[in-house]
Design goal:
The chain has 318 residues and is mainly alpha-helical. α1 runs parallel beside α4, α3 runs antiparallel to α4 and α3 crosses α14. The longest helix has 27 residues. The protein is globular.
């Protein structure tokens, strides 16, 4: 199925999906963080940055390209944390400058937006270092420019751009000795690739097409199918999870697989009835006070839930 352009509504969903994709793997990205200092916060900083933008994007009821662009740029700038978060916000800033006056995004406008995003990010860094998120962004921008004259299908275009980003990311240890010594790729670059979620277009054909990639139920089904294929290819669930998270070319997955399997064992135990999750025991209170507390809590969180409901209900593209 071809997709010739992206409108404001679809872009809004894509931003929210990107935010969820990064948030879901922030701890793993933290584990990769060894440059410029091994402080283990790249995933957290990038997540805080994109979630600040996603909250503003989610609050838009009738999205236009201009309103989405403004929310994405200003939200990420205000929420930027750490070096990686600042660079991510600058990538968004450059990207949105290119699309804000458009009614829809085509392959050509995407190529221009990728280029402008990269230029803006490089200018924002006093001493740009290759082998980082900047290098990954530049690689995708260059590929985007090459592809702009070869196809007008957004799905095909993005698939190849993301593949190029993955390749450039895999080469970052050759550019930065500290990465090679630790056996990891650049954490900021990996974070960016989580934002640029893989487009498994063929996997969605049986579920109505790629536009259903943001449907929670369809997303889970496709994710399970992709993981199952990795298990067949790799032979074990552990190696499959390593590929699933994007760490196939790395010496380790930062503990991602172990955490997933630990959660799986807990869920299996609960389902079999052999384990019951511990509940926090509250102090004895009257039924009237409980009812009052529920009313108070509802009034406190209603507005927040309205703002973030789209974020919670839209899983990341796989």
């Amino acid at each position: 199925m071809e997709l010739k352009s992206v409108d404001a509504a679809l872009l809004q969903k894509a931003v929210l999906a990107a935010a969820k994709g990064l948030e879901a793997k922030k701890e793993w990205i933290n584990e990769l963080n060894v440059f410029p200092v091994p402080d283990g916060d790249t995933g957290t900083n990038m997540t805080m940055t994109i979630m600040a933008a996603a909250r503003e994007v989610a609050a838009i009821e009738n999205p236009t390209m201009e309103s989405i662009a403004k929310a994405l740029s200003s939200g990420s700038l205000r929420g930027a944390r750490g070096n990686s978060g600042v660079i991510l916000s600058q990538l968004f800033r450059g990207f949105t400058k290119e699309i804000k006056e458009s009614n829809e995004i085509t392959v050509t406008s995407l190529a221009n937006a990728f280029t402008r995003a990269t230029e803006t990010a490089y200018k924002a860094v006093m001493k740009p270092k290759e082998g980082t998120i900047l290098t990954v962004a530049k690689g995708m921008a260059e590929k985007a420019v090459d592809l702009a004259t070869q196809t007008d299908d957004v799905i095909e275009f993005l698939t190849q751009v993301i593949e190029e980003g993955d390749y450039v990311l895999s080469q970052t240890p050759e550019m930065l000795p500290v990465l090679k010594q630790a056996g990891v790729v650049d954490s900021g670059g990996q974070g960016l690739m989580q934002v640029m979620a893989k487009v498994h277009a063929d996997k969605f054909e049986d579920h109505g097409g790629i536009q259903y990639a943001l449907d929670p139920v369809v997303n889970i089904k496709v994710g399970a199918r992709i993981l199952k294929e990795y298990v067949k290819q790799k032979g074990t669930v552990e190696l499959a999870l390593k590929s699933y998270v994007g760490a196939a070319a790395m010496s380790h997955d930062g503990g991602y697989g172990a955490k997933v399997l630990a959660e799986y064992r807990k869920l299996k135990a609960v389902a079999s009835g052999s384990h019951t999750p511990a509940l926090v025991q509250a102090k004895s209170v009257s039924k009237r006070s409980v009812r009052q507390k529920k009313v108070i809590n509802t009034s406190v969180f209603t507005e927040q839930e309205k703002k973030e409901s789209r974020i919670r209900d839209n899983p990341a593209l796989l």
